[in-house]
Amino acid sequence: MFDVVYLCFAAVAWALAGYKFRAWLRDRGNADLGLTCLMTAGVATVFLFSAPSLYRAFDRLTGVANLAMVFLYSSVVVFAAGALVLLLRWTGGEDPAGRRRARSRTRTVLGLVMVAWAVAVTGFAVGRPDTVEHPRDFSTAYTEAPGVMVFLMLYLAIFGASLAGLGTLCPRYAAKVGPSWLARGLRVLAAGCWLGLLYCACKLIGFALSWAGSPAPWLSNGVAPLSASVAAILVLAGFALPAAGPRASAWRRLRRLSPLWREVTAQAPEVTMEGTRAGRWPFADLEWRANRQMAEIRDVQRGIRRHVEADVVDFASERARSVGIDGSQLAAVAEAVALRRGLDNRRAGRCPEPYAESAVVTTDMAPAAEYEHLALVADVYRSSLAETVLAELRQRSTVEERGA
Q1: What DSSP state is assigned to residue 51?
Q2: Could you read off the pLDDT of 43-80 as tens digits, one per residue?
Q3: Is the pLDDT of residue 119 over 70?
Q4: Whole-Å CA distances, 325 to 121, 310, 331, 376
């Protein structure tokens, strides 16, 4: 079971690392993106070597017992080093002097991490008392081996320091960037860092209890790995949210807008763009497709303005209020009725006088709010209320034509 779980997480993590690497190739000047790519690869490698069967297979291949643990913890140190560099970059300042200080401190910190980790690996090399594999109880199996303890303590020091710094700084940056998927990702990343500190605390307490003659393997080999695994998942989610969140939102908008877009463009095909940027992959160019659909719906609304009676929006709004609808729902109903009335009149060749100045009820909206408004229009486009109001408008037109 552990093999399946860890290998599945590793596959997801490597897919995310590959996606970020591809994004970095398109924007190589973005050092923060490059660092997050490296950190994601570190987490992916941790999951990979956490699978017991792969752990043992690697050791059999190399002929060195528990060497996989060195690679596993080295991957954690890569993540930690990336986090420390991010901290220095984020706190160094935007001016040239601040960037120079950040570069100088980065070189110093990376040098210290490399020296400390070289000492740790040396401790591992000279401190292993046996050749027994310990993929799940490594830290408790060697509590009496000084060299391995040096290895583990330096590892926890590097990892804990990076988690504490990153966990403190991420919420501050989330507050600065305001409500966004980036802010959500930073907060989730911070949660993963703090949970990772619980892992470090469990390991340290486990060491202390073992030295005191009261070993607690449930803490070191149970609670600690579980908290580390959940922390790693939160870290990956924090890295993924800034990219995945907007795409998920675009997909939801597309699902809601598409029925309205298909219906109105079928009656006004001249507004549709030639060709498409979207590939065969259904999740390709989601933002572009959502923008395109909204723009083409707006083009149809502008094109049918002269086919909409001047009082249609007010008429529909009054009917909506009479049945207890107000706010954004009322605006959506009025706009849906105006759009359908304009298309009906255009199909019938009717150009009323006076006609509406606009078939759009709300203007000057932020993009997200405009998307939500048009999605509401799509929701009520074929509603019973819209049908009722349109029936009244058709009846009124019939009476007016007979009177004329």
Answers
A1: S
A2: 999 989 888 888 888 888 988 888 888 999 999 999 99
A3: yes
A4: 69, 22, 9, 13
What would the mean pLDDT of 104-110 be, rounded to a whole number?
88
Residue 287 reports pLDDT greater than 60: yes
> Phi and psi dihedrals of 355, rounded to 5?
-105, 170
| Distance, CA of 305 to CA of 355 (rounded, Å) | 7
DSSP 360: -
- Alpha carbon 90 to its chain's center: 20
Section 184-199 average pLDDT: 93
Q: What is the pLDDT of residue 327?
A: 84
Residues 6+ apart with CB under 8 A from 380: 329, 332, 333, 336, 386
Which class for 127: exposed (0-12), middle (13-18), buried (19 or more C-beta within 10 A)?
middle
Does position 402 have pLDDT exceeding 80, yes or no?
A: no
Q: 20-27, long-range: CB within 8 Å, 24+ apart, which pairs? A: 20/239, 20/243, 23/243
**Cα–Cα distance between 270 and 292 in angstroms, integer?**
14
Torsion angle (degrees, nearest 10) of CA 24, 30, 33, 38? 80
295 pLDDT exceeds 50?
Answer: yes
Residue linked to tokens 């009261």: 214
Residue 254 CA: distances (Å) to CA of 9, 38, 141, 263: 29, 33, 55, 14
Q: Which residues pair with 355 in a beta bridge?
A: 309
Calpha distance 24→22 (Å, rounded): 5
DSSP string, 307-357: GSBTTHHHHHHHHHHHTT--HHHHHHHHHHHHHHHHHHHHHHT---SSBPS
Place of tokens 């004329």: 404
Biggest CA-to-CA distance, the chain = 105
Confidence of residue 129 (pLDDT cuts 50, 70, 90): low
77 within 8 A of 113, measured Cβ to Cβ:
yes
Q: Which residue has the tokens 């990219």?
A: 243
Length of the chain: 404
**Is residue 117 within 8 Å of residue 84, measured between CB atoms?**
no
Here the tokens at position 384 are 């019973």
